[in-house]
Amino acid sequence: MTTEPGHAPPLLTVSDFSVVYDVEPPVAAVRDVSFELRRGEILGLAGESGCGKTTLAYGIQRLLRPPAVITSGSAVLHDEDGVDVDIARLDPEALRRFRWDRVSMVFQGAMNAHNPVMTIGRQLADVFTTHRPRMSRSERTRECAELLDLVGVGRERLRSYPHELSGGMRQRVMIAMALALKPQLMIMDEPTTALDVLVQREILQQISELRKRFGFSVIFITHDLPLLLEISDRIAVMREGRIVELDDAETIYRGARHEYTRTLLSSFPSLTGERGGFVRAHEGQASAQARPRPALAGGAR
């Protein structure tokens, strides 16, 4: 990367985006959400379950199914070739090509998303078969092997089945699949759920290293705010379908403005110190640190 995320141009612009579930009575899941995602940036999207995080992510990619309806707004990807792509205006074939090529996603529950009767290598190769049909079989195999090496699984696992891999390894394979076509944006929905704290930390470090190496942007979705303080450049906090606060991770850690954000921060107990939550246990440490690095164990589920 040649440009720091804080000074980089925008990659994605979301404006006045709203999603309603057309049931009786209608449910406004996302309400007039606007934000910019910069190139090379990790944007954390935090909030309690049901606040609209996943609905927003699905809406941006037009993955929503009825009764969900996008009622207003736009999501525009500023492509690296200089073209602005309004995702809402893509026809079905263009949208199919766009999704994994420009924007990929690690879905919630991805650790269990593998086909149990197909080898890891075959599942990885399907990405290239679909999106790079001119690649030869040997080229696909080589790319899949390099992807597994890249995420620390090892190419010897190409012939393995999902049940032969640990939870952390399966999650890494999903990250490899999302990286396969070198997208500009990766959306990760609760990618470390159900993993123990040590594996969680390893995967977070790997995501950060891969981002620095390839320069893609990340929207990282979780209800675990201390975890986002570990990895994010900026954090957006959602409540009841709206973004109530959006700022640098350090600013939110040191002085969150919205009461709901402060409540989220104080809801995680520390492993040491007095009772009273995450903020009190870490007071006094912030001034001694250039960047806050709270213990992930405070946010373990």
Structural description of this entry:
By secondary structure, the protein is an alpha/beta fold. The chain has a domain of 148 residues: Rossmann fold, CATH 3.40.50. The protein contains ten helices and ten strands. The strands form two sheets. Strands 6-7-8-3-9-10 form a six-stranded mixed beta sheet, with helices on both faces. A four-stranded antiparallel beta sheet has the order 2-1-4-5, covered by helices on one side. A hairpin with a 5-residue loop joins strand 1 and strand 2. The C terminus is likely disordered.
Topology of this protein?
Blueprint: E1 10-21, E2 27-38, E3 42-46, H1 53-60, E4 68-78, E5 84-86, H2 92-101, E6 103-106, H3 120-131, H4 137-150, H5 167-179, E7 185-189, H6 197-214, E8 217-222, H7 225-231, E9 234-239, E10 242-248, H8 249-255, H9 259-266, H10 278-282
Parallel strand pairs: 3-8, 3-9, 6-7, 7-8
Antiparallel strand pairs: 1-2, 1-4, 4-5, 9-10
Helix pairs in contact: 3-4, 5-6
